[in-house]
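Exercise: predict the fold of this chain.
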Amino acid sequence: MHANPSRLQVVTGTHQDWPLHDVAASRAAEHAALARQTHAGELMARAGLAVARLGLALAPHARRTLVFAGPGNNGGDGFVAARHLNAAGHRVVLVRCATSTWPADAQQGLDQALAAGLQLETLNPERHQPHKNDLVVDALLGIGSTRAPEGDMAAAINTINAGDGHVLAVDLPSGLNADTGALWGAMAVRAADTLSLLTLKPGAFTGAGRDHAGSVWLDRLGVNDLGAASACLGGAPNTAVRNHATHKGSYGDVAVVGGAKGMTGAAVLAARAALAAGAGRVYCCLLDVEAPAREAAQPELMFRQHVWRQAPTQLGRQTVVCGCGAGQPSPEVLAPLLAHAARLVLDADALNAVAADAALAAALQNRSGRQACTIITPHPLEAARLLGTDAAQVQRHRLKAAQQLADLFRCTVVLKGSGTVVASAAQTPHINSTGNAALATAGTGDVLAGWLGGLWSAQPNLPAQTAAAQACWRHGQAADRFALSHPNAPLRASQLIETMLATGDV
């Protein structure tokens, strides 16, 4: 294989920031790169070679390589890759899906593959079933999808997913929405690896994208000017260094308000997380006034009642986390916090209360005008209630939903889920790069809210979006660390706090 100016980079697990470009931005970058190429098919030649090189690295001993080629330039990348893989000694089977004509560059790639001795076969699910020692290249659709796969395309995706070969998706798993991470229909290719070409697409990192894209790689194809990013994939935060000449008052006070009858554990978990994240003092204000005012496992916590009745000046010095296990917090509780807390993290039941009460919603919106900072941490259903829609709609448009909430309430939004989205008004949205299904247990969201409150208290000058992104990264990284020694096991919320401490210095 001849040299080219491409440089392959692994993205998954690198813990650095990466710019993400949606379909419109990616198309613009592609058109600009095509206008600069010195000869026809140059960009596709680089792309196909990059696919072949990664395929050889991932499956050097593959007995057979199946290249499923679709109707557009994604198929053309597959034709070029097939030719290089064939030249490298792979037994390549080139499978055509749903077309007999291609764009000019793709047709050129096909002509070169045929001239090299390859044959173009019509899809036969039985004959083209991938086996364990096969490399499978998904060059069906990439970012060209605009609707649910059907016909031969659907049959090809089903064939790929029914086999057990090593699947490498070209640019994006076919059937996945590049912008949102949702499936266009009922199916999408499940890849072990995805080679993103020219730009990284947001959909590979949120929603269903993480399950379908596998490990993501990037080859910019020698192009450096890609235009403005649509979003950012967040990396590891910088570790804050504590000065020697400080004391507990230097790291602020956190008040956790929540824990209605039968749900006090949620507030206690949040308070413990706030303390672990670095807050100087943490007050736990349980709404169940009959609950024991102590936590034997965490004697450092201080239990106080009716924190919201404090003088406005005192609330104005605190970071308040409200909503964890709060049941149905009343306006009596929420209104003073919305009016006076310096930094406010609203989670769970507090968000449901805001969604149901126009006055509370207006009070949340008005905080930004007083330079008071707010972070809300909804899961999809809570976000749907705030937006007046349903959770499925939120999941289909995670980045859009998070940005709508940020604009509506003039705050920072942490839309939880696979590929948590952090959005603020007039800022580039951020997708968290860490975390896994080990977090799918009761209380892990309370831990995130509490940790965020503690981090923000200890570092009050952090912009809200930065604090939220850092907390999400540490939260997810703890789950990733846990999964290394406990694959497919759930992570208990109390255990999560200690694991978060172990991921790095506070």
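Check your answer against the key: Residues 148 and 184 are 5 Å apart (CA to CA).
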